[in-house]
Write a structure and sequence with these properties.
Blueprint: E1 2-5, E2 11-15, E3 22-25, H1 28-34, E4 38-44, E5 48-53, E6 56-60, E7 65-70, E8 76-81, E9 86-90, E10 102-106, E11 122-123
């Protein structure tokens, strides 16, 4: 079981199922919402259990998806496509050890000009 929480602790959760390796998204939306690129793992929504949700706020961030953050500390927490059975979880919100690694980088055509990608993860110019 993996655990995680926002910065202030007003949102906490456990994950009881397998996690996908982390994917780093460099799209403009993720960068603006997180302050940098957003790295996320993913699991079946039924495997994500909220143990505290005092600060949890969901909002429709586009016509196809919704995002969740803590309304108290501002932590970016979750991303879910409408009608999907999966929820993406900000990798940085997980308690260590996670056993995860960054598998790939996506939306590089929207990457900020102030950083370089120098790891050995796969890169792609679109979501796979």
């Amino acid at each position: 079981m993996i655990t995680g929480h926002c910065h202030c602790g007003a949102v906490a959760f456990t994950i009881t199922g397998p996690l996908r390796p982390s994917i780093a998204c460099h799209c403009e939306t993720c960068r603006r919402l997180s302050g940098h690129y957003w790295s996320a793992t993913q699991t079946l929504t039924s495997h994500l259990n909220l143990t505290r949700d005092d600060g949890l706020t969901w909002y429709a961030s586009s016509d196809i998806a919704q995002r969740a953050f803590c309304r108290f500390c501002g932590s970016s927490l979750f991303y879910r496509l409408h009608n999907s059975e999966y929820t993406s979880i900000g990798t940085g919100t997980l308690d260590s050890p996670t056993g995860l690694y960054t598998e790939s980088h996506i939306y590089l055509e929207e990457k900020g000009d102030y950083y370089r990608i120098i790891d050995d993860a796969e890169t792609s110019n679109s979501q796979s």
